[in-house]
Task: structure prediction
Amino acid sequence: MTTPTDRLAALRSAYIASHPASARQHEAACAHLPGGNTRSVLFHEPFPLAFTRGEGARLWDADGHVYTDLLGEFTAGLHGHSNPVIRAAIDTALDAGLNLGGHNLLESRLADLVSARVPSMQLLRFTNSGTEANLMALAAATAYTGRRKILVFKGGYHGGLLTFAGGGSPVNVPHDFVVGRYNDLAGAQALMAAHAAELAAVLVEPMQGAGGCIPGEPAFLRGLREATRAAGALLIFDEVMTSRLAPGGRQALLGITPDLTTLGKYIGGGMSFGAFGGRADVMALFDPRRPGHLPHAGTFNNNVLTMSAGIAALSQVYTPAAATVLNARGDALRERLNALCRAQGAPLQFTGLGSLMNLHATAAPIRSVDDLPTDGQPLRDAFFFHLLEHGFYIARRGFISLSLPLTDGDLDGFAAAVERFVDSL
Result:
């Protein structure tokens, strides 16, 4: 029987031998970038892939290998690479001037489309990333309530400065955080009761994405809605990832109306984008016509490339019908993969919802990151390199994000590669 560690060693050796150009690129990058890297999640040993181009659902690396892209830029690349409708919208915007330095005719149209999709966002503002959107949502919550404490959950990820994989990060912004256990409503209620007079907001993903595609249980999320309302705190849904799971996001699927919602890059057609919004009385704090309004800066908040791409993406590409179809395909694929693992008796499972999923090295129920095996990374590394060898690209942590241009043949090929991986162990 081959162990994951043995399999990983063989796969890494083959990877080194077949990717000399990526190795050279990494060595060159190390001259001025720490570890040859400027985006931590993309690094992996022995050296990361260097990509040269993408088209549709395909990626090409510096060594000429072609991959089916099952990562979709960590959800931002929902539309695929260089979608022709979005590309045409960007070209049109470029023809009219890159950076106008004032209000334009596009930002209100995109805001209308976003609010129509997510009606709880009565008023909203644009940012350049989901990280910024969450930072601004927390600023709104603390200003509106006059309180300072923020309840978050272990395993949560709300951007590079708001990450709670191990309960916190040394680079997090210095809010007064209280960290609870995901899907533990009683524990969250106890923390909220203990800090009720100081609690400004609860910030939660309706499904933890970077934490491993762990869905929030409906009773847990509804309980947070009731508890925040009783405490006079705001409920913030981070739907940077989960808004793609249905035309109106997971809040629409569950019938829960948060006070504030944050969104991310796929809404802007895959360009640099974020948005935060919600209750009109909260968001009115940013109205520059009001005395003492809250400032919110950002040179590219309303940049014409993102505005134009976002309008095209929401109105023509990721329509409500397209969202429904893509997520149904994702559910069917995840069920197929899990059935395959069960049939082989493999201690593996794919968690998630709709078009997002994550491999874990356990067959036991997973309700929070505390349920994840601490020794599962060698297996996921072996899975990552196995898929590269078979022409599929995912995240090293086992994360998969489906994009629109993927075909049934692509998904069949992926399922076959998963079956071969299970057989190899």
Remarks:
- The mean pLDDT is 97.
- The longest strand covers residues 199-204.
